[in-house]
Every structure is written in structure tokens, then in C-alpha cells.
Inverse folding.
């Protein structure tokens, strides 16, 4: 599986591809095995996102996770740039407990590109499984102009 390291404002990010689809982004170090055209495009799109020049990612993705996590990832991808939803909103839509949605968000295998940072608690920011935790979530929300939600 091709994997590369890419430096971002939120720290080094490892991107992985399998059979022509992006399958992972992670702040946890992984062995680098070489780049591909898709990984090069993913890093270019991430750079444009962090430069506030891109709001959406146009990449083939494959979520290799439980059925619930896959459904939650589909819903998260539909949340527009700069907007948020709550764990409860997604839970109602899926007919599952909000806690299960929170766990599925934490299991998101492709954070940033699948924007789990756009999902908040009803009365808090909720968690964030990426490097830096909630501080990284706040950084991403500020980048997207959602800082007014944090006051």
C-alpha cells in the first residue's frame, strides 16, 4: 500500500492509498513506501485547503471500517465547509445513540478529508482523535471560518 508523509499546519500527516483510492490519513507515523499520482493530488489538495484556496476535496476514497463508521463518514462528507452538525443530529438521522456517532467519528480513517472536525457535541466541541486533539479541531474550524461557533 503506497504511503507518504506530508507536512501540514496540523503536523506531519501520513496518507495511504490502496487500489486507486485514498484509504487513510493519520498523524501516526507509518513506513513510507512511495508516492503515486493520487497521493500527489491528495497532498496538492491538502495544501490548497490549508492555504484557504480549496473548500472541498475531490479524491476517490475508500472507508475501510464498520458499517456504522462508513455511514457516519458519508454524512460527514456532506457537511459543507465552514458549517457544523452535532453528534445528536447525525444520530437522529441514523437512528443510533449520539455516543455511537462519536465513536464512529473517532474511527474515521481519513480525517480532514472526511471532516469529522465539523461534528460537535450539543454543548461542547466534543473530541478529536487526531494529533493535538481538540486544539487541532479548533484550528481546522477556524481555518474554515467557523470560529464564531467556538465563542
Amino acid at each position: 500500500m503506497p504511503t507518504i508523509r506530508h507536512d501540514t499546519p496540523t503536523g506531519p500527516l501520513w496518507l495511504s492509498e490502496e487500489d486507486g483510492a485514498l484509504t487513510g490519513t493519520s498523524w501516526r507515523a507509518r513506513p513510507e513506501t512511495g508516492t503515486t499520482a493520487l497521493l500527489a493530488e491528495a497532498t496538492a489538495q491538502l495544501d490548497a485547503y490549508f492555504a484557504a484556496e480549496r473548500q472541498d476535496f475531490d479524491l476517490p476514497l475508500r472507508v475501510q471500517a464498520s458499517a456504522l463508521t462508513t455511514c457516519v463518514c458519508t454524512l460527514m462528507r456532506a457537511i459543507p465547509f465552514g458549517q457544523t452538525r452535532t453528534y445528536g443530529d447525525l444520530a437522529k438521522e441514523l437512528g443510533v445513540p449520539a455516543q455511537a456517532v462519536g465513536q464512529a467519528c473517532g474511527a474515521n480513517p481519513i480525517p480532514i478529508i472526511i471532516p469529522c472536525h465539523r461534528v460537535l457535541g450539543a454543548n461542547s466541541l466534543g473530541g478529536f482523535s487526531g494529533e493535538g486533539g481538540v486544539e487541532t479541531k479548533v484550528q481546522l474550524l477556524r481555518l474554515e471560518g467557523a470560529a464564531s461557533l467556538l465563542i
Q: What stands out?
A: The chain has a mean pLDDT of 94.
